[in-house]
Specification:
The chain is an alpha/beta fold. It has 5 domains: about 210 residues, Talin, central domain (A middle domain of Talin 1, Up-down Bundle); about 80 residues, Helix Hairpins, CATH 1.10.287.130; about 160 residues, Histidine kinase-like ATPase, C-terminal domain (Heat Shock Protein 90); about 140 residues, Response regulator (Rossmann fold, 3-Layer(aba) Sandwich), CATH 3.40.50; about 120 residues, Rossmann fold (3-Layer(aba) Sandwich), CATH 3.40.50.2300. The protein is about 60% helix and about 15% strand. It has 23 helices and 17 strands. Strands 1, 2, 3, 4, 5, 6 and 7 form a 7-stranded mixed β-sheet that branches. The chain has a 5-stranded parallel β-sheet with strand order 9-8-10-11-12, sandwiched between helices. Helix 16 links the parallel strand 11 and strand 12. Helix 2 packs antiparallel against helix 5, helix 6 runs antiparallel to helix 7 and helix 8 runs parallel beside helix 9. The longest helix is centred in the first third of the chain and has 71 residues. It is elongated, with a radius of gyration of 45 Å. The two termini are about 75 Å apart.
Length: about 750
């Protein structure tokens, strides 16, 4: 052990020595670079601003001499003076031209300014020559010469002087800049040298210290390793502790309810109750696992959005049916409404949209006290991208609310409000973080407003592409038919009136059952009966069932009465049928669903006579299924579900065995449920082999292959479809999804 420690610190000493050499090499490179920069700066000063400033100064001196010379000509124009002036002007011109060429060639700050100076000087030379010619003429007065000098020569000299001042100023600025830059490099070199010397001294001291105290340091290092290991364990424990209670709770329920059920097999009601609780706990446990997996994919940048056509009407009703048991369990009032939904089919990721809504609604249900109220409102708004609309979802509750402090961190992972109520509520603190990430990936936004003990509102805005679709509503079919709407929510009444108007019907509305009875009876007496009545189920004073009963007592059984509710139809179906309810409409109301219900109710066909509210009794399917599953328990579950549906099921334990079944009779099976991860041969290769056999023999019909896996990510689905599978179902198996697949691919 000690030898290992000594070897470790000897390696550390070598590393330090290498580090020192690298540091020295780096210093040499940097110092050489800065030295070159300083030399370059000095060369620039020598080559540019310095000679430019000297040349400009020479031209400035020549300009002053020229100014004196031309002023002399105003009063003295003798032959000797003119000869002397000409010689002086020639010498001045030669000197100025040389200086000017230096400026034009070396000036860096603003070369066009140097060019302009040359142009000005050339103009001045032209005026200078004309002045000499003027002075040589006989009879020219001093006033004429003085006026010419004042109007033509002096302004040009002023411009030249101004330009030269600017050039000298810029040259000085450049000189100062280069000088200051050189000083800066010098200071940097001083700092680097000081730092290097300090680092070298510290490194040498540390090197000596390591060599002299390596045994002591070995012990210290061991302690540090222990501390680091403990810190890592603490971090792991912190994460696990955040979800351990929530995992243990459903697991305890599953184990406990299983034990209770096994000891009370004769008590069917108790066994049924235990199984329901086991199913609920299992779903909750699966949700926890999915949250952790989703968070992991988000952090790794592997979270993807899949876009496909989605019918919002079907989506919303499916979603409501899923959350209804949670709502009913806490005796909550559920308020659902939509506003201005013109485009019901959109391109989006239905799975992720469901995940967003599920996370938010689950929180609303969890943190709203019994007998409280939650609401979901959906509306369509304009969007600044062609072919898109903004769909806004508002989730509100009158629950416990949250503090302003917690609202700022609610979308961060593992954040949960530090209250006794929340601490007793199941959750990992990942749901809202995942929700925010999904909303961002879908190009939307999410916000929250809340007040303690008053409630919370989440607003999610998502841009969605509108699917081009033909209008399937025949307004002439229901033209001029009259309907009475009865709901205690004014918004629902007004929105329903608008929807009925769009499908061609006239309508009136009242806010309670008593008024509804009066309206229906009055219309009946005037022989202006309504063609239909839409009744909200849950209203104060008189609910929809009682209202329907009283309407029947007044006008008989011929008037179609439709119950409107956000809750499950089956809960009141028997009582509703008893009082003469004709059909059922689920909230929120979409135009397509409303039209379909009114058409089927008011214009029934032989097919629609057997159907109310879209609840169709499906016969059991027939056919043969090949189930390919290596896990015996999973195979037993799937086989039982398929057998209960009326299907004959053969079971293969791997891909090779599945191929043997298939080769025995290639047209034997209607569907093959193929697990993708198996020993010997996995589902991907088995599917590819089956498709290869089908392609080689034209007599072979296409066999439907549905992949099965616990992996639910888009890339897993894409891989399954790419190898030749027709569809994909995830584990644990969703009964509704399984039934839909069987309806799709099996004959009834």
């Amino acid at each position: 052990m000690l030898k290992n420690k000594l070897n470790r610190y000897q390696k550390l000493a070598k590393v330090m020595a290498v580090f020192l050499l690298i540091l020295l090499a780096g210093y040499y490179i940097i110092s050489a670079s800065y030295t070159n920069s300083i030399i370059g700066g000095l060369e620039n000063i020598k080559e540019h601003p310095f000679p430019v400033a000297i040349a400009a100064g020479k031209m400035e001196t020549n300009s002053r001499e020229l100014r004196l010379t031309v002023e002399r000509l105003c009063t003295d124009r003798t032959i000797d003076t003119l000869d002397e002036v000409k010689r002086g002007l020639a010498e001045n011109q030669g000197s100025s031209n040389q200086a000017l060429e230096t400026i034009v060639s070396l000036y860096l700050t603003d070369p066009p300014a140097a060019v302009k100076l040359k142009e000005q000087y050339n103009d001045m030379l032209e005026q200078q020559e004309y002045l000499i010619e003027l002075c040589e003429q006989d009879g020219v007065s001093d006033e004429t010469v003085m006026l010419y000098v004042k109007e033509n020569i002096i302004p040009l000299l002023d411009e030249i002087d101004t330009a030269l001042e600017i050039l000298i100023h810029n040259a000085i600025l450049m000189f100062d800049t280069l000088y200051l830059q050189s000083l800066s490099y010098k200071r940097i070199m001083f700092i680097l040298t000081t730092v290097l010397i300090s680092v070298i001294v510290v490194t040498l001291l540390l090197y000596r210290y390591v060599l002299s105290k390596r045994e002591v340091e070995a012990v210290a290092l061991q302690k540090q390793i222990a501390i680091a290991a403990q810190a890592a364990n603490d971090a792991k424990s912190q994460f696990l502790s955040s979800i351990s209670h929530d995992i243990r709770t459903p697991m305890n329920a599953i184990i406990g309810m299983t034990t209770i059920a096994s000891t009370r097999l004769d008590d069917k009601e108790r066994v049924k109750d235990c199984l329901n609780k086991i199913a609920t706990s299992s779903r909750h446990l699966l949700g926890l696992i999915n949250d952790v997996l989703d968070m992991s994919k988000i952090e790794n940048g592997k979270f993807t959005i899949n876009k496909e056509p989605v019918c919002l009407s079907d989506f919303m009703h499916d979603f409501i049916s899923i959350i209804q048991p949670q709502v009913k369990a806490k005796h909550l009032e559920l308020d659902l409404s939509i506003l201005g939904i013109e485009d019901e089919i959109v391109i989006t990721d239905s799975l992720r949209l469901h995940q967003i809504m599920q996370n938010i609604m689950s929180n609303a249900i969890k943190f709203t006290r019994e007998n409280g109220k939650i609401s979901l409102r959906m509306e369509q708004a304009p969007y600044d991208r062609e072919g898109y609309s903004l769909y806004v979802f508002r989730f509100s509750d009158n629950g416990i609310g949250m503090s302003e402090k917690f609202q700022k961190v609610i979308f961060q992972p593992f954040e949960r409000a530090a209250t006794s109520t929340v601490s007793k509520t199941e959750g990992t603190g990942l749901g809202m973080s995942i929700t925010k990430s999904i909303v961002d990936l879908m190009g939307g936004s999410i916000s929250v407003t809340s007040r303690l003990n008053e409630g919370t509102t989440f607003t999610v805005s998502l841009p969605m592409q509108k699917e081009q679709q033909k209008e399937c509503i025949a307004t002439d079919l229901l033209k001029d038919l009259r309907c009475l709407i009865v709901d205690d929510d004014r918004d629902v009444c007004e929105n329903t009136v608008l929807l009925l108007k769009e499908i061609g019907m006239h309508s009136e509305w009242v806010l309670n059952g008593a008024d509804a009875v009066v309206y229906v009876e009055s219309a009946h007496k005037r022989h202006l009966d309504y063609n239909a009545v839409i009744l909200d189920w849950q209203m104060p004073d008189m609910d929809g069932i009682e209202t329907a009963r009283r309407i029947r007592n007044k006008v008989g059984d011929t008037l179609p009465i439709i119950i409107l509710s956000a809750y499950d139809w089956t809960e009141i179906e028997d009582e509703a049928r008893e009082v003469g309810i004709t059909a059922f409409l689920a909230k929120p109301l979409f135009k397509s669903r409303l039209y379909e219900t009114m058409r089927n109710t008011l214009m029934p066909t032989p097919d629609t006579q057997m159907e109310q509210n879209g609840l169709i009794a499906h016969d059991k399917a027939s056919g043969r299924i090949l189930l390919v599953e290596d896990n015996t328990l999973n195979a037993e579950i799937a086989q039982t579900l398929l057998t209960d549906y009326g299907l004959h099921v053969d079971v293969a334990s791997d891909g090779n065995e599945a191929l043997e079944f298939f080769r025995a009779d290639t047209n034997k099976y209607d569907i093959i449920f193929m697990d993708v991860q198996m020993p010997v041969m996995d589902g991907y290769h088995a599917t590819a082999a089956i498709r290869d056999l089908e392609s080689k023999n034209s007599k072979h019909s296409h066999t439907v292959i549905i992949g099965m896996s616990a992996n639910a990510f888009k890339e897993d689905v894409d891989k399954a479809l790419a190898c030749g599978m027709d569809d994909y179902i995830t584990k644990p198996i969703d009964i509704k999804k399984l039934q839909n697949l069987l309806r799709k691919f099996c004959k009834p």
